[in-house]
Amino acid sequence: MVNNAQRAAGEKRKSVGFLAVFSNLPFMLLWLGQLTSQMADRIFVYVLMVVIYQATHSNFGVSLPLLAFGIPSVLIAPWAGVLADRLDRKGILVVSDVIRGLLILLIIPLITKSLLWIFLVSLLA
């Protein structure tokens, strides 16, 4: 049963569509930046797997970079959540994206046909 206060509160709320969130410029810029960053990461992982498979013709060789991406997030996630709650979230986003970009730039000179370099590239990623 709905009382008068709940009915009045319901009448005051407006129905806001999904696209209304994009009218908030800071949110839109954050969303577009993270979308771009995530897409670049996924493309990088795909290209890395293709390069490693072409160099090694080994499924095991392709699995190593996937482990290199997955294991740190599993090990660090419990503490990262606590730190993210205590620190400035905008600063965390900026610092993590800058560090990730610098690590990607370190990979560029390392791309060769040598198997050793391929595994170093996957560890840097």
Automatic annotation (TrEMBL):
Keyword set, alphabetical order: Cell membrane, Membrane, Transmembrane, Transmembrane helix, Transport
Membrane topology: Multi-pass membrane protein
Superkingdom to which the source organism belongs: Bacteria
Subcellular location: Cell membrane
Main location: membrane
Record InterPro entries: MFS_trans_sf
Signal peptide per UniProt: none
TM region(s), chain numbering: 15-32, 62-82, 102-124
GO cellular component: plasma membrane
PANTHER family: MACROLIDE-EFFLUX PROTEIN (PTHR43266), MAJOR FACILITATOR SUPERFAMILY (MFS) PROFILE DOMAIN-CONTAINING PROTEIN (PTHR43266:SF2)
Name recorded for this polypeptide: MFS transporter
Naturally occurring in which organism (per UniProt): Candidatus Saganbacteria bacterium
